[in-house]
Amino acid sequence: MSEAAPTFLAGRLERDVVLDSLVRHSVPGVERVDPENGTVSRLVGGASGEKPVPITVTVRDDGVEVHGSATPSVIEAVREWFDLDTDVEAVESAFRDDTVLGSLVRQRPALRVIGHPDAFEAAAQTVLGQQVSLAACRTFTGRLAAAYGRAVGDGLTVFPGAATVAAAELEELRSAVGIPEARARTVIALAEAFTSGLRVERLADHADVRARLLALPGIGPWTVDYIALRVLRDPDAYPVGDLVLRRSLGGISPAAALELGERWRPWRAYATMHLWIADAEGIPIDGLSSSA
Q1: 210 and 250 inside one domain
Q2: Residue 56 pLDDT greater than 60, yes or no
Q3: 228-265 per-residue burial string, b: 16 or more CB within 10 A, e: under 16
Q4: Is 20 in the active site?
């Protein structure tokens, strides 16, 4: 039986940025990223209760190719993962004449906010990434997957569902992942919230999701803002508490970053992405001293 033809999903992309993001956020065992060939392989589920299927996505400048027998809902999940439905021309137009972002958007006119195909996995990874390096975050998330996930062959593991993590014994999880007890409590509390009906997705009531997340032990504004950006797909999410974001703006305070960001509504998530990329690549930002 021949392999199904790939499904092409069109949309301008900054291919190198996308692949770099995939590499730096990939969870060992759960995702396999090949930057040379421009691919990422993992299991992706679609509608609620739909069994995850293994797919490989090839990233191109003009969109992505989905390889594998993916259902329509999985294809839709990939569209959202790579932010393909956002009008990047509208974002570019909004920022083109901005004294801080103008030069950045001219360098990266098709920059998108790369999300995640699994809401619980992304939220758990965000919690595990609190106050640690991205490399440590990937290690912790990989350990959680190895301890509670399910190997499916070809070197890939299905990330554990919220119900599995919610049922985990606190000390066992803490030891398996190698994190402090308080962080393990937060991971379990997050899983319990998901099993109790918390829907962290684009079409959910964002204010309600934010409030329910903030009510959990160990979750503060930075975590909620980051989840809003990557999982809720809020185009105006703006994590002013993020150190890298504020460093890119010259080390200003959260209050100053919030005031500066008012002019970037309703696209502050995209402003954040441009500033993060600028910091990672050491790009000086024009017009900053006169604006901050």
Answers
A1: no
A2: yes
A3: bbbbbbbbbbbbbbbeebbebbeebeeeebeebbeebe
A4: no
